[in-house]
């Protein structure tokens, strides 16, 4: 467990407990209290000390997703905590206020265990606060809801099921899709709310599912921030496309609502290439009962109380937001995705090779570069880079969408991101600056089954 922390105070010790077993062995009831992992609250400028105890029967790591930390505390696959062993890590919180998260990152000779271990419950939210955010007096307390979206499958006895049988083969290509969606480890709920504004902090903690977040009454989604914290100004979109590992910070104002009024946050339907369209054949091969692109509810809000709240949506959020800036001479590094029949996806024809770094995967400390992700495959790939937050500088459609035509107007490319969705047929350019720390980091697809099957590489800052 963790407790809210004061600036400068050391963080609480927390530990992984209980055994993990493959297949239908973990029933949901006993793990509900800590499924997903507990919320960790940190303040910018604080020093964190964590002692990580591995009580699992296999290697694990703890990766602080989105945080700008030195390589040796980044929880990378080359630094596993062995069963029964401990690791202590210390780092300073240099990141902007935002919703981040933590999850395991082990990768052995037979592939990664990120998908399985995260699925089994070793992932949780990490909230950073800072003075800029505090100054805005955004809704907090019970007016701030943290929502972790994860799709899961259950056996008849309510045991969690990961990948088995034909489904495993299918999931290797498309990623795991569960039969139902859980919000904070529970079936979606309806909450009683009052006539005032709310702030929703949403993490897509799913292995592979992409959400198309919208309001049931058609009102626009008002976005305050993304992975790396607040935007310069709020944005309004008809819907928000949230890829695995991404976060979105949403403002919703119910000040004018009537008592008894209801509003739902839904994931709206979209067309999803072969993942959605395989019909009976797909079902036979283990397609989920809730295919990609299905519509479902995530959160119900029922207005039950009147409240006066002086808050209104700030017109400016973070005036100091400074994404890496590029010029016409900023060097461009190109990464092309490919598919290897039955062996998963590749980046520039390579798959994961442990800490091995190729000549074209070395960057210079202090440099700003453009990385160009080219997706000529049939699947979307949410690309994540460790150790920093980047800015999207260009998104271009190269070919058709290969059966994924519906998600592009919900992509929030503003602000700072650590994960960017590259849809089939797209080329996306991001600007990154490699600051402060030398050494090895990784970049990979955050579809956890793609990552576990090799769509991951190390890069070196030198
Ligand atoms: Cu969530 Cu390698 O990261
Ligand atoms: Cu990460
Ligand atoms: Cu991928």
From TrEMBL:
- Matching InterPro entries, A to Z? Cu-oxidase-like_N (IPR011707), Cu-oxidase_C (IPR011706), Cu-oxidase_fam (IPR045087), Cu_oxidase_CS (IPR033138), Cu_oxidase_Cu_BS (IPR002355), Cupredoxin (IPR008972), TAT_signal (IPR006311)
For the keyword Oxidoreductase, the answer is: yes
The alphabetized UniProt keywords are:
Metal-binding, Oxidoreductase
Q: Which SUPFAM superfamilies match?
A: Cupredoxins (SSF49503)
Question: Recorded E.C. number(s)?
Answer: 1.16.3.4
Reactions that this protein is recorded to catalyse: 4 Cu(+) + O2 + 4 H(+) = 4 Cu(2+) + 2 H2O
Q: What is this protein called?
A: Multicopper oxidase CueO
């Amino acid at each position: 467990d963790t407790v809210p922390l004061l600036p400068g105070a050391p963080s609480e010790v927390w530990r992984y407990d209980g055994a993990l077993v493959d297949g239908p062995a973990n029933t949901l009831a006993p793990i509900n209290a800590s499924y997903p992992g507990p919320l960790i609250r940190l303040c910018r400028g604080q020093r964190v000390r964590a002692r990580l105890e591995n009580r699992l029967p296999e290697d694990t790591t703890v990766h602080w997703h989105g945080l700008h930390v030195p390589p040796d505390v980044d929880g990378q696959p080359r630094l596993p905590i062995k069963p029964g062993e401990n690791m202590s890590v210390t780092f300073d919180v240099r990141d902007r206020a935002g919703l981040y998260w933590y999850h395991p990152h082990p990768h052995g000779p037979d592939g990664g265990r990120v998908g399985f271990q995260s699925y089994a419950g070793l992932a949780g939210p990490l909230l950073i606060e800072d003075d800029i955010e505090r100054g805005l007096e955004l809704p907090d307390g019970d007016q701030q809801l943290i929502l972790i979206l994860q799709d899961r499958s259950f056996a008849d006895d309510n045991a969690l099921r990961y990948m088995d049988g034909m489904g495993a083969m299918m999931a290797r290509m498309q990623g795991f899709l569960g039969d139902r969606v859980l919000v904070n480890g529970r079936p979606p709920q309806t909450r009683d709310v009052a006539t005032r504004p709310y702030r929703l902090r949403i993490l897509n903690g799913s292995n592979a599912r992409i959400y198309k977040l919208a309001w049931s009454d058609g009102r626009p989604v008002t976005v305050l921030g993304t992975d790396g914290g607040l935007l310069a100004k709020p944005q309004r979109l008809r819907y928000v496309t949230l890829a695995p590992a991404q976060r979105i910070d949403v403002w919703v104002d119910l000040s004018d609502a009537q008592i008894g009024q209801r509003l739902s946050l839904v994931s709206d339907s979209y067309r999803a290439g072969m993942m959605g369209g395989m019909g009976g054949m797909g079902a036979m091969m283990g397609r989920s009962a809730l295919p990609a692109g299905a519509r479902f509810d995530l959160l119900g809000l029922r207005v039950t109380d009147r409240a006066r709240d002086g808050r209104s949506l700030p017109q400016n959020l973070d005036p100091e937001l400074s994404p890496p800036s590029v010029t016409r001479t900023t060097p461009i590094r190109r990464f092309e995705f490919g598919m290897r029949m039955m062996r998963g996806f590749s980046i520039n024809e390579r798959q994961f090779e442990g800490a091995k770094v190729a000549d074209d995967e070395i960057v210079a400390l202090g440099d700003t570069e453009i990385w160009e992700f080219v997706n000529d495959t049939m699947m979307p790939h949410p690309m994540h880079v460790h150790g920093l937050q980047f800015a999207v500088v260009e998104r271009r459609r190269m070919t058709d969408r290969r059966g994924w035509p519906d998600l592009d107007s919900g992509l929030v490319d503003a602000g700072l991101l650590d994960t960017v969705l590259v849809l089939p047929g797209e080329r996306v350019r991001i600007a990154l600056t490699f600051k402060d720390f030398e050494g090895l980091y990784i970049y990979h697809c955050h579809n956890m089954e793609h990552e576990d099957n090799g769509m991951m590489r190390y890069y070196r800052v030198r």
